[in-house]
Amino acid sequence: MSNRKSQVGDAALYMRLSRDDEVQGESNSITNQRKLLRKVAAEMGYRRTREYIDDGVSGTTFNRPAFIRMTDEIKEGLVGAVLVKDMSRLGRDYLKVGHYTDVFLPENDVRFIAVNDGVDSDAGEDEFLPIRNIMNEWYARDASKKVRAAHRLRGMSGEPLGHPPYGYMKDPENQKRWIIDPEPAAIVRRIFNMALSGMGSEQIAAALTKENLLTPMAYWDAKGIRRGGGRRVIKSPFSWSCSTINGFFDVQEYCGDIINFKTTSKSFRSKKRVANTPEGVMVFKDIHEPIVSREDYERLKTKRASHPRKRSAVTRRNIFSGLLRCAGCGSNLNFHVNQKNSNITFYSCSNYLTGRRNCDSTHYVRADFLEKVVLADIRRIVKLARVNENALADSLTDAAIKDVHTQSASLRRSIDALRSRDAELDRLFEQIYEDKVLGELSTEKFALLSSRYEEEQLAGRTKVEQLEDDLHALENRAIRTEDFVRMVKQCKEIKRLTPKLLNQFIDWIEIHQAVKTDGVYRQRIDIYYSCVGVIQLSEEVQDIVPMKEVTLDTRKGVRLANSLSQNLIAESFG
């Protein structure tokens, strides 16, 4: 024996067992591996050994606790040799196994021994080692395909593949079916009702916290229900957060649906879950009893997608909280009370009042006047739906179709270009893989190029998913107008504005700065209705249900009035 560090340092006995390996029987058990490696280490003269065990971890990932600890101790110079039962115990990823056997271990002067495969780095380079690595990877690939096939078969049949969300539990008599868990289901219904009434996530979270209601994780923990992922430390079982509240609004399962294949992995090597494409997601509607009506769920989801900004809590009446935007800079408009006359409330651009003056105008609008105008416009739309539903539907559909035509072509061109590059990257990867097998490309160069290609491909596919979502939403606008018309028709007489009514009808309202022309102040206000945006009615349709003038006397010499639904006028007189 030489005097190399590998002959005198500690021998690392690395053992790994995955769930797939357990099926093969005792030969790959941790007990068997330990017995074999201890015997071989003793025969080779290693008196000190260190054992590293990853039990129940796949060989396609190298994010294993014991393996990471072993590599750290190798870097510290504590290990002189690494012994494994066979190459598959080290891993089943051809590229990464090659990195450790060809680069990492030699650089740290560590001997590598795979007992059953007859591999010993001290005996010289093994020409068959890359082939063994490829075979191990193929095994993992084949096993992954079988697992995925079984998983997909279950998912395609409508069987839920994940845990039931908060509010549901597995049926004790049929584990493949979800039933309502009464106590948390009542809280879920309450959360949706509060959100639909105009309350923000912070307000809802504060209300539940004040009542000492258990958070979802605390509830499951109290009931002894195990959930996936690492063990979470619950600091306060009654402390609800905005993120927890917001998470409820994306759970379509509350409508009674089963959503399978929401996430996927890019390959059998990667354990990271990414969002699936819309085409890959399977939706099975009305499988179990709903907690929330589909209409309420869709209305709230559409609204949140339109204006995700948080709403601030106020003590005075502020029914437009979170709905007003500055046309100049896009910032929210803040609610204010006149210091000299507390009966006067108004809104102005939050960005203008910061002191930095990043917005050039206040975009001031009186709250009482805004209420009158918005109420009048909603009443007009409701009346039009009753008097001539087809006229309203045609106006909304024509606007939606025009918008789709102008934007969809650009989105499709971008998607086609990204998909073309994706196919090109597949061809490039196959080419460098063949060059590596034929010895025309080094392992290091192959790893570098393949890593770059995979990163670019992942970024491209993520962008395609985003663009496809945009295109899907765009093409659905014409369909969504039907939902809006149906919602409007269901409304009875509207006597006054409420937060729930505003949240039902309107996504946001854009306020422009008033401009004085020929002694008249003109202020444009754009109302973006749910699903359809700004409603632009033709003169012919406007004549069916004309907009009545709304007036409001303010200070002496000024009267506020409006002409059309989106054009407000402040007239000076006297």
Q: Can you tell me about this structure?
A:
This protein is of the alpha+beta class and 574 residues long. The protein has four domains: 149 residues, Rossmann fold; 145 residues, Putative Large Serine Recombinase, Chain B, Domain 2 (Hect, E3 ligase catalytic domain fold), CATH 3.90.1750; 150 residues, no CATH class; 90 residues. The protein has 18 helices and 22 strands. Strands 12, 16, 17, 18, 19, 20, 21 and 22 form an eight-stranded mixed beta sheet that branches. A hairpin with a 3-residue loop joins strand 18 and strand 19. Helix 6 packs across helix 7 and helix 9 packs across helix 11. The longest helix is centred in the C-terminal third of the chain and has 49 residues. The N and C termini lie far apart (110 Å). The N terminus and C terminus are likely disordered.
- The counted number of beta strands is 22
Structural class: alpha+beta
Distance between the termini: 110 Å
Fraction of residues in helix: 40-55%
Can you summarize the main beta sheet? 8 strands, mixed
- What is the radius of gyration computed over CA atoms, rounded to a whole number of angstroms? 33 Å
Quickly count the helices: 18
Contiguous runs where pLDDT drops below 50 for at least 5 residues = 1-6, 309-315, 561-574
Please tell me what the overall shape is. elongated
* Whole-number total of structural domains: 4
Share in β-strands: 15-25%
Please identify the oligomeric state.
single chain
